[in-house]
Design a protein that fits this description.
By secondary structure, the chain is mostly helical.
Amino acid sequence: MPEIITDQTLLILTAVLAYLLGSVPFGIVITRALGLGDLRQIGSGNIGATNVLRTGNKGAALATLVLDAAKGGIAVLIARTLLAEDAAQLAGLAAFLGHLFPVWLGFKGGKGVATFLGMLLALDWQVGLAVCATWLVVAIVTRTSSIAALMAAASASAWLVYFDRGRMLVLVVLLTILVYIRHAENLRRIKAGTEPKIGRKKQADSGV
C-alpha cells in the first residue's frame, strides 16, 4: 500500500466524487440515447458492454466499454494529479465500487471488469497493458468473455509482482476478489459447460 500522506478530509471527498463518477451507468445512458430501449430489460439486464452488444449495436457496446474503463482511469488520474498516490488508489477503488453498486440504480450495477482495466492502466500502464493482453489472449483461445475476464483479473497480482509494483497489491487483490464474487453465476455456468461464447446471443451474461 502507498504511504498515507493526503489529508483525511480530502481522501473522503476523493472517495465520494470517484464513487459518483464510477456509478454513472454509461450502458444505460447510451442505449437510451440511441433509442435501443432500457438495457435492464434486455438480455441479462446487466449494464455492461457485453449486454449492450445484445442490442445489435456494436458501436454502442464499444462506447460503453471505453467509457466504463475511462471512468476508472479518469478518477485515478485526477486524484494523482491533484493529490497523491494514496488518493489515486482510493479513487480507483471508489470508482470501481461505484460501477458495481451505483446509487442511481439501487446499488445494482455491473461486474466491473472494464472499470478495473481502466483503473489499472491509469495506476500503472505496464501492468494495465499486460492484464489487457491477458484478457485478449484468453478471449481468443476460449471464445468466452467471462473466462477471459476472470483470468485477466487473476493475472493482475502476478503482473504486479513481475513489474515490482507491490504498493498496488492490496488494492488489486481486493478488486480481484470482488470481480470473482460478481461472476459467481458465470463460474457456475463455466463448471456446468453452459457458459455462452463470445458473440452468441443468450440470456446469460458473461459481460464486463
